[in-house]
Amino acid sequence: MAVDQEYTLRVSKRAKYARLQMSLRDGLVVVVPRGFDQKRIPELLEKKRSWIEKVSKQYEEQQRLAPQDPMPGRIDLRGIEEIWQVDYRDGNSKRVLERPGNQLWIPDGDLESVQTALRHWLRRKAHRHLKPWLRHLAEENGFRMRRIFIKAQRTRWGSCSEKKNINLNMKLLFLPEELVNYVLLHELCHTVHLNHSKKFWALVAEYEPRYAARRKALRGAWKYVPAWVEG
């Protein structure tokens, strides 16, 4: 029964209503606004039982298929069509170094320090590639936005605020190029319609006629994200 489902409770000052989130790292998360009567949570879980079971199965399958190597020998950034061979080396530098021939030199160390160094490198790559990509799409299609932030969201590929600031997940770099492009266009359309109304989807369709297929593919795209990214 859904009422027996394990979950993490997160109280959010920004939440206006209770909602459920699911991710590979955190499992089921119940997000509630301040002052929410937590006695209502079992009722909410029961109401969403079919959704919880469906998404749980999807994530179990994604987890089974996801690359699990905690210290990778190869990193495939599908979004920018780059493949990097990883070389663990002794040295004084604590940063990941990019060498000719798509070689990554990583300071050898314990698992945590290696993964931290890799995540810092990935974030720098995201700043270098995703921001110009988004700016180009905005200029090409006449969208107006403000600031771009690179984050490591656990459940979202991107988001757009009321101020037209756009957050992009650095993990987008692992996705196929067409899915990354769809996410960027999706968020740009939110600068016009900050919702998922019919008008919003009609606008998305103008720039990505195959958005329904892209949207469906995106649901299983977490399988491209290696385990070391989550830590």
Task: Please provide a written account of the structure.
- The protein has seven helices and ten strands.
- Helix 3 (111-141) crosses helix 4.
- With 231 residues, the chain is an alpha/beta fold.
- 22% of the residues are buried.
- The mean pLDDT is 88.
- It has two domains: 2-65, no CATH class; 74-230, Metalloproteases ("zincins"), catalytic domain (Zincin-like), CATH 3.30.2010.10.
- The protein is globular and about 55 Å long.
- The strands form three sheets. A four-stranded mixed β-sheet has the order 4-5-7-6, with helices on one face. Strands 1-3-2 form a three-stranded mixed β-sheet, with helices on one face.
Topology overview:
Blueprint: E1 8-12, E2 19-23, E3 27-33, H1 41-47, H2 49-65, E4 74-77, E5 82-89, E6 97-99, E7 103-107, H3 111-141, E8 148-151, E9 158-160, E10 166-169, H4 177-189, H5 198-207, H6 211-219, H7 227-230
Parallel strand pairs: 1-3, 5-7, 8-10
Antiparallel strand pairs: 2-3, 4-5, 6-7, 9-10
